[in-house]
């Protein structure tokens, strides 16, 4: 990878020791993010995407966390760095916005005070200067009458305005890396697009690197340059947005795309859910973690449930997938799928192949808790 | 508008106090009458031992005990608000406002007696309140942050003991240890704050600690539970994500949210306590409202009981009102 990447994550593992066993929330994730680019991390609930982002921010605290691997922020190693140093970077060089802006803002402090606090923490300025800056930030994220609304409490803001305020707070110290964890999930559909537009226009203005975490492929399609598809704490597929949407190389990605409503394509068929539920992160299935839900395991001669697939380059440079399928099979299956052949027609998996649990069919685009 | 809210709240407070007085009056004057007590018998209680029938009759007329009950109640309320004139035909005596009637025991007006005992209870309650609020909250916060450690287990164990042990036990224990065995605070008795502030404080140390121990234990447990809940909130994660040092995350963002419900409980506890800390006062022989209450009940002194009940309910209702008003300030989400 070229030197000078804003963020480089290598073989990141975040494990939690619990009473029930070791939870491998993130198990060997690597990616690179350049300045001014946007990475989308996609996956179902419990795929480890949020834990990855909290890990970068150093917010996975507690005695039971084991973190290994490398996180290089502008060349600086964060794994094992002193807590005080990470705190200095947090909110300053890297900032984060969260899913639910109402519960993420403190109910007893005004929006202005919360932004002022963030700004003054990393900049040695007077309260008046910080207040001016807070108003300016609120203005920039499109809060009307910012000079008045700065003294409002979060409950006096609408949902979209709260998320705008969160963004204003996160950007107040001009971070070089912005992580947005499901920034639009808790918002009205009409507001979602506005917030996404805001994030991308601010990114152009500030030139920061952005990570968008979401289960909504529509969001990533709109914003991302690169996409990382996560499954059971591991990378299933990694490539440019074009790679992922035009030439996806992993059956899980196919499933995600198949379960996403699309307006740019004429489809009469129903959306296809991915059968089964995400696996337990304590007892991750042997071999490929996706194999109990995969429709194509028979094509690999039994390797799927015994051998962990490596993340290998497929088709184009930098586009990687962790799947045992051969390049020919992959190309053939995807072209069949994109022409509308259902996986059930190609091959019907047995009921017991499904993940442990109810065997109930759940859509992969279900709400992330 | 804040001012309208306060006025509304004040009117409600007055209404509540009237209701309390009505119920208390009914219990002490209506119920015995329904059970067959005559106004003559009632009057006999006001006259002392070995009364002459003419004296009793005179008292009956003077206090108006022979008039209908609603008139008597009206007179009682009028006495509290304005003061009242008592006339037995020849002599007219005036009981100045606020008049809670005359005690059976010594034929003296009740109010001045209440006022002479109230400072004892107020000194005791407020001193203990400061101690338990600071102590309880501090221990609760530390326990929450060190959840599962030796400190947490120890302080929660002590807190459990504090909640469970009755005051008369802890009071006697502290007296035995610190007043007799090691005479740090010998001969505990109440000294007025105006006559000697130093002695006042010195004599109150043991009662304060004893009373505070009970409440601090309760508050430590509430604070710990609240703190554990708050520290898991999303806005605490946001505070950390800003890069705030952990100490400020806890003391500013965490404690701010935890304290809000504690203020409510604190107001009500203090209000209740101001009406008399019966056990603590008795154990330390402090002549406060609690002691007054016990004596009044032992002597079946109706006017005294009425008076202390009215004063205690006044404290509780006012404390509640203050908490409500305070809440609009400390919780911006409360609309008025």
Describe the protein in words.
The complex is a heterodimer of chains A (369) and B (336). Chain A has 369 residues and is of the alpha/beta class. Chain A has a domain of 125 residues: P-loop containing nucleotide triphosphate hydrolases (Rossmann fold, 3-Layer(aba) Sandwich). Chain A is 32% helix and 20% strand. Chain A is built from 13 helices and 12 strands. In chain A, strand 7, helix 8 and strand 8 form a beta-alpha-beta unit. The longest helix of chain A is centred in the middle third of the chain and has 18 residues. Chain B is mostly helical. Chain B folds into 2 domains: 95 residues, no CATH class; 221 residues, MetI-like fold (Orthogonal Bundle), CATH 1.10.3720.10. A two-stranded antiparallel ribbon of chain B has the order 1-2. Chain B is globular, with a radius of gyration of 25 Å. The model of chain B has no long low-confidence stretch (mean pLDDT 89). At the A-B interface, helix 2, helix 4 and helix 7 of A face helix 9 and helix 10 of B.
What keywords describe this structure?
A: 369 residues, four-stranded antiparallel beta sheet, 12 strands, 32% helix, 20% strand, disordered C terminus, B: 336 residues, two-stranded antiparallel ribbon, 73% helix
Level-2 CATH architecture of the domain at 229-353 in chain A:
3-Layer(aba) Sandwich
Major β-sheet annotation of chain A: 8 strands, mixed
Strand content of chain A: 15-25%
Work out the radius of gyration of chain A. Answer: 21 Å
User: Count the strands of chain B?
Assistant: 2
| Derived structural class of chain A | alpha/beta
How many helices of chain B does DSSP assign?
A: 13
> Would you identify the regions of chain B where 5 or more consecutive residues have pLDDT less than 50?
none
The oligomeric state is: heterodimer
The helix fraction of chain A, in percent, is 25-40%
Question: What is the CATH topology of the domain at 229-353 in chain A?
Answer: Rossmann fold
CATH architecture of the largest domain in chain B: Orthogonal Bundle
Distance between the termini of chain B: 7 Å
Coarse morphology of chain B:
globular
**Span between termini of chain A:** 34 Å
Q: What number is the mean pLDDT of chain B? A: 89
* Total count of domains of chain B: 2
């Amino acid at each position: 990878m070229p030197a000078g990447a804003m963020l480089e994550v290598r073989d990141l593992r975040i494990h939690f020791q619990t009473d029930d066993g070791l939870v491998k929330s993130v198990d060997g994730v690597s990616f690179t993010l350049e300045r001014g680019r946007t990475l989308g991390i996609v996956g179902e609930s419990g795929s480890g995407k949020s834990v990855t982002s909290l890990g970068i921010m150093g917010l996975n605290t507690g005695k039971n966390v084991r973190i290994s691997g490398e996180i290089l922020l502008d060349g600086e190693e964060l794994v094992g760095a002193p807590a005080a140093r990470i705190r200095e970077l947090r909110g300053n060089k890297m900032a984060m916005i969260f899913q639910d802006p109402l519960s993420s803002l403190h109910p007893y402090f005004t929006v202005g005070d919360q932004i002022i606090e963030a700004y003054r923490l990393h900049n040695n300025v007077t309260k008046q200067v910080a207040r001016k800056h807070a108003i300016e930030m609120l203005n920039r994220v499109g809060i009307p009458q910012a000079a008045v609304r700065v003294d409002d409490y979060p409950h006096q803001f609408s949902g979209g305005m709260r998320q705008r305020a969160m963004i204003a707070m996160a950007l107040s110290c001009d971070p070089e890396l912005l992580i947005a964890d499901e920034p639009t999930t808790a918002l009205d559909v009409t507001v979602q697009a506005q917030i996404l537009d805001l994030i991308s226009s601010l990114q152009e203005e500030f030139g920061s690197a952005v990570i968008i975490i979401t289960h909504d492929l529509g969001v990533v399609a709109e914003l991302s340059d690169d996409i990382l598809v996560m499954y059971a704490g591991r990378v299933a597929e990694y490539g440019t947005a074009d790679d992922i949407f035009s030439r996806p190389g992993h059956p899980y990605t196919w499933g995600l795309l198949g379960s996403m409503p699309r307006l740019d394509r004429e489809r009469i068929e129903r959306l296809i859910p991915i059968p089964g539920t995400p696996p337990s992160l304590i007892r991750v299935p042997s071999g490929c973690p996706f194999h109990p839900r995969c429709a194509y395991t028979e094509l690999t001669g039994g390797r799927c449930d015994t051998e962990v697939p490596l993340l290998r380059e497929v088709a184009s440079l930098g586009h990687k997938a962790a799947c045992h399928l051969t390049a020919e099979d992959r190309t053939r299956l995807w072209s069949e799928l994109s022409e509308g052949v259902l996986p059930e027609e190609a091959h019907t998996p047995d009921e017991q192949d499904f993940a442990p649990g109810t065997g109930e069919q759940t859509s992969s685009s279900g709400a992330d808790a | 508008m804040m001012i309208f809210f306060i006025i509304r709240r004040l009117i409600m407070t007055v209404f509540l106090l009237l209701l309390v007085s009505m119920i208390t009056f009914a219990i002490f004057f209506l119920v015995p009458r329904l059970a067959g007590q005559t106004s003559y018998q009632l009057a006999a209680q006001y006259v002392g031992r070995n009364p002459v029938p003419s004296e009793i009759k005179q008292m009956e007329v003077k206090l108006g005990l022979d008039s209908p009950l609603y008139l008597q109640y009206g007179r009682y309320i009028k006495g509290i608000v304005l003061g009242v004139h008592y006339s037995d035909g020849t002599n007219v005596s005036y009981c100045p406002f606020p008049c809670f009637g005359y005690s059976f025991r010594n034929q003296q007006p009740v109010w001045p007696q209440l006022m002479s005992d109230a400072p004892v209870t107020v000194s005791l309650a407020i001193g203990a309140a400061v101690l338990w609020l600071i102590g309880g909250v501090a221990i609760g916060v530390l326990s929450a942050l060190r959840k599962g450690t030796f400190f947490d287990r120890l302080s929660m164990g002590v807190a459990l003991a504090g909640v469970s042990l009755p005051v008369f036990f802890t009071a006697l224990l502290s007296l035995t240890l610190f007043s007799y065995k090691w005479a740090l605070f010998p001969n505990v008795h109440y000294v007025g704050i105006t006559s000697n502030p130093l002695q006042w404080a010195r004599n109150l140390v043991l009662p304060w600690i004893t009373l505070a121990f009970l409440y601090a234990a309760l508050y430590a447990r509430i604070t710990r539970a609240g703190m554990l809940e708050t520290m898991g909130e999303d806005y605490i994660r946001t505070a950390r994500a800003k890069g705030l040092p952990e100490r400020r995350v806890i003391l500013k963002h965490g404690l701010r949210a935890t304290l809000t419900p504690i203020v409510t409980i604190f107001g009500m506890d203090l209000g209740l306590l101001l009406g008399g800390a019966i056990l603590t006062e008795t154990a330390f022989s402090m002549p406060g409202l609690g002691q007054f209450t016990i004596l009044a009940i032992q002597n079946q002194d109706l006017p005294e009981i009425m008076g202390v009940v009215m004063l205690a309910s006044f404290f509780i209702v006012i404390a509640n009102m203050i908490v409500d008003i305070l809440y609009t300030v400390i919780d911006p989400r409360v609309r008025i």
